[in-house]
Specification:
It catalyses: L-cysteine + L-glutamate + ATP = gamma-L-glutamyl-L-cysteine + ADP + phosphate + H(+). This protein has 18 helices and 14 strands. The protein is an alpha+beta fold.
Length: 527
């Protein structure tokens, strides 16, 4: 039974509390650069921020204006937020009058053709990233990819899996099978994260222009769903027909890799019709369902650090799962860093809970439609009074199930507090329990209440918060020594990009063909 497994493993943790001091976490925060009135910044990535290709902490995602700020791996939440805060302060102080947009849903956007795709220089690896993004524009449009989110990376020490008796013949197999089991449980319960932390119940007209939707009008510029928690994670988000057909298997790592490998090697008719070149220039890397593995958008991913030029699937196949990446979190618009420490403490307890629970396999296809349906119900209507979800073939109220989950998560939070000192994790669980009892405390409810009570648009709301956060970050200049470290990091990254461009041999076409063949078991060349 699931409860028996949880309590047995908790008892084992009580005998080995030091296992929990080895938890590692990191954050990747995306955020659009805008001008002072909330229009998408059309300026290039600032030289003072270094090379978006080679800087370890400051890069760009889809658009040249979509910054991504990445922390290192940290053993404590304090250290994690110290670094995240320092990077935000350095970036904001080097943006001039530009802002980091506070909301996940985009700022004022120009026409589709004017949205700038990120540029990484002329090296083969830089051009691969750029052409991949050209392909995303062809497949999904540019507007959709101006949505920003926050990724939370989490790992448990190798000794955790070995000591607690997870199944597997080797440490690698125990670790990988346990992470896959964690992912299955995450998929079952991630609707709770969307209820607690979803913060995008509305969207601006510029995002919806020319797209079919079922949203309601709030004002001339703003559309919403009255009980939505996260439109970013709804069908309005990063989806299309090809993506919607993907059903990766989370029953075991080998099958997951095989399914995803099929997606990056199987042609898709609509993409074949586009082709890979137009007017002599690359417009997408290939015509497969996915150009590369990272194109698959999911709420969570198994991860293994890949070397430059190494395919993610190859890294997973050869070295197993190293950590998991939670990808469903909206930016918290009320936090200057897009996330607060309390959220991090809760996520650690939630993910530990998913790791400790028994995790039955999904159906024969390895994909649970019920979990997907629950997730969809909560992102679109999670605050609806009396909302019912499905659990084990029966209906259950979101509030009842939420409290039951928080009871188990609290047990994990208490172990984390015992191992690390303090009561931060238990306090974080208590704050989330209050949201179950009072829906008006959820971020999505707070956003809608602000819009409705003050009679302002989503754009106005985000612009005010963006200015407020910029003022907060500018008011905390980095100490001279730390500022010098960030400037040195930027210069080093610029030099590294130049060196990559200098060291390239062969043609870009040959480079793409080699990259295609780098898949585990691959024998074909690029399209």
């Amino acid at each position: 039974m699931t409860a028996d497994t949880l309590h047995r493993r908790l008892e084992s943790l009580d005998a080995h509390p030091a296992l929990l001091t080895g938890i590692q976490r990191g954050i990747e925060r995306e955020g659009l650069r805008t001008d002072g009135i909330g229009q998408l910044a059309m300026t290039p990535h600032a030289t003072s921020l270094g090379s978006a290709l080679t800087h370890p902490r400051i890069t760009t995602d889809y658009s040249e204006a979509l910054l991504e700020l990445i922390t290192g791996v940290h053993g404590s939440t304090d250290a994690l937020f110290d670094e995240l805060g320092a990077t935000h302060r350095y970036v904001q102080q080097n943006l001039g009058t530009e802002l980091l947009w506070a909301h996940s849903m985009p700022a004022g956007l120009p026409g589709e053709a004017q949205i700038p795709i990120a540029w990484y220089g002329t090296s083969h690896s830089g051009m691969l990233k750029h052409v991949y993004r050209r392909g995303l524009a062809e497949r999904y449009g540019k507007v959709m990819q101006c949505i920003a989110g926050l990724h939370y990376n989490f790992s448990l020490p190798e000794t955790f899996w070995d000591t607690l008796g997870y199944a597997g013949d080797t440490s690698k197999s125990r670790r990988s099978s346990a992470y896959i089991a964690l992912i299955r449980n995450f998929s079952r319960y991630s609707w709770l994260l969307m209820y607690l932390f979803g913060a995008s119940p509305a969207a601006s007209s510029c995002f919806l222009e020319g797209r079919p939707h079922h949203l309601q009008r709030l004002d001339r510029d703003t559309w919403f769903l009255p009980h939505a928690t996260s439109l970013r994670m709804s069908d309005l988000g990063y989806q299309n027909e090809a993506q919607s057909r993907l059903k990766p298997c989370y029953n075991d790592l080998d099958t997951f890799i095989a399914r995803l490998r099929e997606a990056v090697t199987e042609p898709w008719p609509a993409y074949e019709a586009i082709g890979t070149h137009r007017d002599g220039e690359w417009i997408q890397l290939n015509t497969y369902i996915l150009q590369i593995e990272n194109e698959y958008y999911s709420a969570i991913r198994p991860k293994q650090t890949a070397a430059r030029g190494e395919r993610p699937l190859t890294a997973l196949s050869e070295r197993g799962i190293q950590y998991i990446e939670v990808r469903c979190l909206d930016l918290d618009p009320y936090e200057p860093l897009g996330i607060g420490a309390t959220t991090s403490h809760f996520l650690d307890a939630f993910l530990l809970y998913c790791a400790l629970l028994d995790s039955p396999h999904c159906g024969p296809a390895g994909f649970c439609q019920t979990s997907a349906d629950n997730f969809k119900a909560v992102v679109e209507a999670g605050r609806r009074p009396g909302l019912m979800l499905e659990r084990n073939g029966e209906s259950i109220a979101l509030t009842d199930w939420g409290h039951q989950l928080l009871d188990g998560i609290l047990l994990c939070a208490q172990r984390l507090d015992a191992a690390n000192g303090g009561t931060h994790h238990a306090n974080a669980v208590a704050q989330q329990r209050a949201k179950i009892d009072r829906v008006d405390l959820t971020p999505s409810a707070r956003v809608l209440n602000d819009l409705q009570q003050r009679g302002i648009s989503l754009h106005q709301h985000a612009l005010e918060l963006s200015h407020r956060h910029a003022d907060t970050l500018r008011a905390q200049p980095l100490p001279a020594g730390l500022d010098a470290q960030y400037r040195a990091m930027a210069l080093t990254s610029l030099d590294a990009q130049v060196e990559l461009e200098r060291a390239d041999t062969g043609t870009f076409d040959e480079y793409v063909a080699r990259y295609e063949r780098a898949l585990p078991g691959a024998t074909t060349s690029a399209s």
